[in-house]
Amino acid sequence: MHYRNPIIPGFHPDPSICRVGSDFYLVTSSFEYFPGVPVFHSRDLVSWKQIGHCLTRKSQLPLEKARSSGGIYAPTIRYHDGRFYMVTTNVSHGGNFYVSSEDPAGEWSEPIWVDQPGIDPSLLFDGDGKVYFVSTSAKDPKGSRGSFQSQVDIATGKVGECRHLWNGTGGAYPEGPHVFRKDGWYYLLMAEGGTEFGHMVTIARSRNVYGPFEPCPHNPILSHRSIDTPLQSTGHSDLVEDEQGRWWIVFLACRHVGYPRMHHIGRETCLAPVEWTKDGWPVVNGGRPVELGVETDRPMAQQVRSAGFVENFASPKLGLQWNFRRNPDDGAWSLSRRAGRLALRCVATTLSDVSSPAPAFVGCRQEHLTCQAAVEMDFRPELPGDEAGMTVIMNEKYRCDIAVTRREGKRVAFLRRCVGSLVAETGTQAIGEGPATLCIAATPEWYEFTVQVAGGATIALGKAEARHLSTELAEGFTGVYLGMYATGNGADSPAWAEFERFEYRGD
Q1: Which tens digit of pLDDT belongs to each residue from 209-222?
Q2: Which of 138, 288, 302, 436 is the most buried (most CB within 10 A)?
Q3: Catalytic residues
Q4: Read out DSSP for 284-315?
Q5: Fold for domain 2-295?
């Protein structure tokens, strides 16, 4: 049988997975985006559908002034005694916490905060009824690094003595620990090497939940270091057993393009089969690199992959694919001002600001290296700084905007490219009045921007290199979003931009 990686494309890093009967559930990091921690469901491990978010309320996910790549780090999902638990870190506000729900597609509880340092937390529900909380810390008072664990009261979040488990194999940034039990052993799965080209997955085991832990003799069990494959930076994984007793690993990886290698649509979720040796150690994909196309002798269902969507904004709620940057200002957006339209107000905050309130922005992940996004916009600027349009954004300093504004009495469109401290506006064209269709067309190495006023010709505003939005240049842990925005550029304006029929098509 054959399936394709990534199984969840685009910015979906740090996957964690659990199984309940025939159903698999998976969560990924969301950083500064709101709602937070998307939840996916699958019956076959290769066809995934988003069913909700774990963090949908500001009380669960405060993100005021959260920097880019701040917010939510590395969630873990677990199921125990009829209830799902998602544990994670808000690095911008509060630290480690968990929420729970009987329905992963429904509302999740208010956070229970855990007074244990570090990031990337996980939970182990042991067979004797005890629950353990494991996290990553740079060091403890004795100078140790790696993973630390304490027993936790799952009802209150109160933890006992925090004890060091394992430093890892010596790679940089040992993180993302998961402890699980199999055949009388406690296995400790970790990521090392940093989430870059040296990323890898390592594992150790012990007969005691607190160790000492013995490292696997063939560590790392997964790494694409110095291997010329399309999937790079493989790491930060989780293991799951299916109903037939077969094991699988989910992990993040990047699809790089160009040379030197770069990636811009984010770290993506991938899958590989796992076998266990007679000595009780896991072997990923038969010890071979994991490719975009994976051949396996395990029976699998036909993989279903999305080629895009059309959003008509007909529902009273935004679809699950949409996100805000930080907690939204409820007075800056609306789905009810006019039926079938998303309205964004020209608030003072711009896309370049890290401030409160958040910018008037609604966007979705770019999930295909080759794709096209288009939206119809009705916008009448009222004040001199009023501006609205589309953006392809990595963070505040690295993005490209198709902007519509008014200058010298004329409504104009232009392309703005932000590359760090360098900001350039090009392709300014008078476009007249009336609704306009904005379009961003992407190839693996370029973006092309056009605008068309109803009944008129398509106007090319310019091109931009995808490399300028790459993680290697822009830094951080997220991926590119395609979105709609409005701003008054420092002044709070009464003007609204209305968007309808957003279409995303991927190759």
Answers
A1: 999 999 999 999 99
A2: 436
A3: 14, 175
A4: EGGGSPP-SEEE-SS--PPP----EEEE---S
A5: Tachylectin-2; Chain A (2.115.10)
